[in-house]
Amino acid sequence: LQEAGGVEANVATGYHAIEFLLWGQDLHGTGPGAGERPYTDYDLANCTGGNCDRRAEYLKSASDLLVSDLREMVNNWKEDGAARKNLVDGDANAGISTIFTGMGSLSYGELAGERMKLGLLLHDPEEEHDCFSDNTYNSHLYDAVGIRAAYHASYTRLDGTVVSGPSVSDMVKVADPAIDKELSDKLDASVAKMEAIKARALAGEAYDQQIAEGNTEGNATVQAAIDALIDQTKSIERAVGSLKLNSIAFEGSDSLDAPDKVFK
């Protein structure tokens, strides 16, 4: 079922499949409210619409698969994991370039472009990242937090403890302290703009409402975060240059690079 018929929108596994199974479709458009799947969709004694047993079985299978996939990812990045060994044992500059490529591609093409600008251009709640649960504000915020964590090699665990180590920030700081500070400040600025989106959501205006046509303040809040991400990507490029690395191509997005194509 996953991407059946070559259609990318046919999502049958992973986080969003589970999200749909728990919340159901959000039928509120750009109005208030998320998906409202009733608990009776899983109540075998009082089932709504039938197939509650199959739905529950699907939910468990999808959840087990997600845990398995995450466990595989963790193992790949352990000290003897394949992904880590490939990065560490290869050419040093290539490994550093890989880190910057991930930061820049997520910052620009994926997050600023496909995940945010596209929905804002179309004012379309279906382009919201977490369109069933209205949890998009958290997804976007922690993408920005993750980019910053990758640069500084510092991650705060759920229990508040911090794991950290040598970072590409350390290298840029040696090569050009001004660029390191510039990028660090812009990473902080992007996180702050995402926190502004979250604050509006927690105050009662969900992300799909913020991108709604005619919501001037909400649109401006989202656009400010997009602008901050674009700005930080330019500084990522400057950081790459400061280390004299080969030119890196970040993932692009028609929403940013050729917005007219979005409406065709």
Q: What descriptive keywords fit this protein?
A:
A middle domain of Talin 1; 264 residues; mainly alpha
Walk me through this protein's architecture:
By secondary structure, this protein is mainly alpha-helical. The protein has a domain at 92-263: A middle domain of Talin 1. Helices cover 60% and strands 2% of the residues. The protein has 10 helices and 2 strands. A two-stranded antiparallel sheet has the order 1-2. β1 and β2 form a beta hairpin. α1 runs antiparallel to α2. It is globular.
Q: What's this, in brief?
A:
The protein has 264 residues and is an all-alpha fold.
List the helices and strands and how they pair.
Elements: H1 15-23, H2 52-76, H3 82-89, H4 92-122, H5 136-152, E1 154-156, E2 162-164, H6 168-175, H7 177-202, H8 207-210, H9 216-242, H10 254-257
Antiparallel strand pairs: 1-2
Helix pairs in contact: 1-2, 4-5, 4-9, 5-7, 6-7, 7-9
How would you characterize the largest beta sheet?
A: 2 strands, antiparallel
Order of helices and strands: HHHHHEEHHHHH
Shape: globular
Q: How big is the Rg?
A: 21 Å
User: CATH superfamily assignment of the domain at 92-263?
Assistant: M75 peptidase, HXXE motif
Global mean pLDDT: 95
Give the tally of β-strands. Answer: 2
What percent strand?
A: under 5%
SS element count, helices? 10
The largest sheet has its strands arranged as 1-2
The level-1 CATH class of the domain at 92-263: Mainly Alpha
Report, as a whole number of angstroms, the end-to-end distance: 29 Å
Helix content: 55-70%
Low-confidence stretches: none
